[in-house]
Amino acid sequence: MTKAFTSVNIEFKGRSPATDILEKAGFEVVVEMPSEGWPDDETRQKLVDVEALLAGSENLNESTLDNARNLRVIARNGVGYDKIDLEYCTSRGIVVTNTPGAMADAVADQVFAFILALTRQIISGDRTVKEQGTYDVIIGEDLSAMTLGLVGCGSIGAEVVRRALGFRMRTLVCDPWVDSARITGLGAEPVDRDQLLSESDVISLHIPLTTENSGIVNRDFLFAMNEDSYLINTARGGLIDERALIDALRSGPLAGAGLDCQVTEPPTGVSLDLVKMENVIALPHSGSKTIAARERMSIWAAQSMADVHCGKVPKFVVNRKVLKNLALR
Ligand SMILES: NC(=O)c1ccc[n+]([C@@H]2O[C@H](COP(=O)([O-])OP(=O)(O)OC[C@H]3O[C@@H](n4cnc5c(N)ncnc54)[C@H](O)[C@@H]3O)[C@@H](O)[C@H]2O)c1
User: Fold this and answer.
1) Are strands 27-31 and 50-55 parallel, antiparallel or unpaired?
2) With contact defined as beta carbons under 8 Å apart, do 288 and 107 qualify?
3) pTM for the complete prediction?
């Protein structure tokens, strides 16, 4: 039987709609979580006779895929595909798909968990109460008196704007690839980078990690932010120059940062120095880890795998060039 392999959990509250989709399409479904750190040699071994992969955070490139001769589709369980060598996959005729928008609610919620935790000292306040110390805490801030600036306004950015309206925040958006009318229609103001930096009290990143965006939040960016402002990163660690962020939090304008992702995950070296700072709240890349989001992602990914198996073009193809040489309808 044709094998579909998944390296992420696809069972929620005792049910697995993704397994149902895959089995109905004729796959034998193998679910195996990788060891911590997603080792490349393990990825390589497990994919030998697999036709369809529901992929988590493993590296998928020439060295991990060269033995996977039956592989036809990699369905990424998420939006980001920076761990996948798209050109190599295209050259091998492997369709790569993702699940854009499936986790937008979950990540947007997490952005506000960070903003509220930072502006109202939730973590240190909790510690103070439990340790029965002084009740003399620093005065917090009202979100309705603050301006939120977003870098990127795709699926997640748009959900963040919707939530910001509920908190009555003024919201600025810098995304040159999104129509100004769409941004205004959402209830935000389109701005350029300079206006975003000079007028925002909180800046939140919602852009992919591409070669152009790598390290885009550098020393210039961080030191041009407002005095006592906050940075939220639920996108990718590699967008930030972490050494510059440590300096900006220690002796620059930033009051705090909320980080769901780091350059090295789990954090080591500079990433570890950063997450250990008192004015940083760090989470273990858990932005999309809610039951509703995970179930939706697994269903969309499984559908893509079933589509390729049944000769259909899946809805969310990342490497569209690959379709030219395949007989999918
Ligand atoms: N923390 C998590 O668990 C988690 C979960 C899902 C996604 N993510 C990350 O969030 C990112 C955003 O997700 P999304 O679904 O909103 O993506 P999306 O593709 O819908 O939107 C990305 C937007 O960024 C814009 N953009 C790209 N480069 C830009 C730049 N330099 N300046 C301004 N705008 C720029 C694009 O025009 C696009 O509108 C993903 O790429 C992924 O890395 C993280």
Assistant:
1) unpaired
2) yes
3) 0.88
- Cβ(76) to ligand 1 under 6 A? no
Chain centroid to Cα 49, Å, comes to 29
Q: Which residues are catalytic?
A: 236, 265, 285
Q: What average pLDDT does this structure show over 24-29?
A: 97
Distance CA 136, CA 71 (A): 60
Q: For the chain, count helices (H), then strands (E).
A: 13, 12
Question: Tokens representing 130?
Answer: 């439990």
Strands 229-233 and 202-205 come out as parallel
Q: Which domains does the chain have, with CATH numbers?
A: 2-102+290-325 (3.40.50.720), 104-282 (3.40.50.720)
Is 83 close to ligand 1, i.e. is its CB under 6 Å away? no
Describe the strand order of the beta sheet including 2-6 as a list of residue ranges: 27-31, 2-6, 50-55, 73-76, 95-97
Token output for 147: 């301006």
Least confidently predicted of 85-99, 134-148, 151-165, 175-189:
134-148
Kind plus residue range of the DSSP H or E element containing 75: strand 73-76
Task: Report the candidate in 274, 249, 279 with the shortest Cα–Cα distance to residue 261.
Answer: 274
Q: How many residues does the chain have?
A: 329
